[in-house]
Amino acid sequence: MRWDRLFDDLEAQAEEIEREERDALADELRDGDWAETGWRDLLGGVVTLELVGGARLTGTVTLVNQTLLQVAGDRADHVVSAGAVSVVHAAERRADGTGRVAAALGWGHVFRALRDAGQDVVLHLVDGGSREGVVAAVGADFVRVVTPAGLAQDVVWAAIAVVSGRT
């Protein structure tokens, strides 16, 4: 009887050690998974983004690549510069994989499509300012926007945080 208790105690200790080792391995694997996960990988479904300068934007993420995020809002669609995002709230799920074409899209593609549509746009700048008008021309690193008053302004892509248009 005494031997039975001794073996039961030893078996319980062995099981406890095995659980601790398994839990430690699971923690290491989880840490490794997080270490390989970028913030863009988490952008799926409905999100709220805090942008440089304090602006907030909520909507459904429809495209993510290294340069841009496309977010469909209630009243407008937005294309956001990845460099203008400071905090992500409420990501529902991981982002869907990006195809080769979507991964290559940049500001030039966005502005040429807006120009061809003749749609009014609002450019929200990283300094908190904004410009409103119609895209007239797309350069290598800038966009020319003609304001409702007819004034042409060349806006450098690096200054753009978000481009919004009506849906």
Number of individual domains: 2
Helix content: 25-40%
Main beta sheet strand tally, sense and closure = 10 strands, antiparallel
Molecular shape = rod-shaped
CATH architectural category of the largest domain:
Roll
Strand line-up of the largest beta sheet? 5-1-2-3-4-10-6-7-8-9
What is the helix tally? 3
Secondary structure tally: strands = 10
Structural class: alpha+beta
**Mean pLDDT, nearest integer?**
84
| Strand proportion | 35-45%
- CATH fold group of the largest domain: SH3 type barrels
Order of helices and strands: HEEEEEHHEEEEE
Rg, please? Answer: 25 Å
Q: Low-confidence spans: pLDDT under 50, at least 5 residues?
A: none
Can you walk me through this structure?
This protein is of the alpha+beta class and 167 residues long. It has two domains: 1-36; 40-161, Roll (SH3 type barrels), CATH 2.30.30.100. It contains three helices and ten strands; from the N terminus they run αβββββααβββββ. It has a ten-stranded antiparallel beta sheet. The longest helix has 34 residues, at 2-35.
